[in-house]
Amino acid sequence: MSGGGDGRPRQLPLHLALSPSYRREDFVVGASNGAAWTMLERWPDWPHHVALLIGGEGTGKSHLASLWAEKAHAPIVRASDLADGDPVALIRGGTLVVEDCDREPLDEAVLFHLVNAVVSAGGFLLLTARVPASEWTISTRDLASRLRAIPPTVIGEPEDALLQRVLSKLFRDRQLSVDSAVVAYLVRRMERSFQAALRVVDALDREGLARRRPITRPMAAEVLVQEGLGDLVGEAGEDDEGDGAG
Predict the structure, then answer these.
(1) Which CATH number fits the domain 160-239, given the four candidates 2.60.40.1930, 3.40.50.300, 1.10.8.60, 3.40.50.150?
(2) Strand order across the 76-78 sheet
(3) pTM
């Protein structure tokens, strides 16, 4: 990124790969994900032995699936890898998570076997996907019928209040003091996902360190553009004024 324009030397921040944290304390519950959180917390008191967790990219479904897997001692596999494993061995422990079931290739025969084995053994199977089973490309009619009979639990896009809480927590975790007005600005303008929140906070942390300055709204505007995570049309004039917190 360009310099801060004040003649101060820039530090060169380290660019470390972002690894999502799937700890329980890192999951923030709100209206958009409350039903999914409640469903996973109620296990093993589920109405069905197979659960469908549906959510778009960055909504936190992998985080939730990981928390349930830890609680239920369940292995996690990707649907595209099912053909490489032994379905009987996968479900031997009685619980299993299969991620990204709406992505091809999907070995329908193995998945159908898993569903039947789980139901027969009284175990539990958690399937995740971006869209409901009714929108998956499945040619095995019995499998399609069984999956579509299971009510999906859907995670929506994070609402403003939830996204603001997530951003605030991410800043606190990095011991960054950021004005609430800056956080509110980010919420209005950034891509609505938890992955985007991680990227924005990481980029702002690095930029603040490089400039040796606090994180401000103009800095946030620059980072949103640089990272391709926001739309600032109509606010350019407002954001170009001074380097105040706004």
Answers:
(1) 1.10.8.60
(2) 76-78, 95-99, 124-129, 50-55, 153-155
(3) 0.76
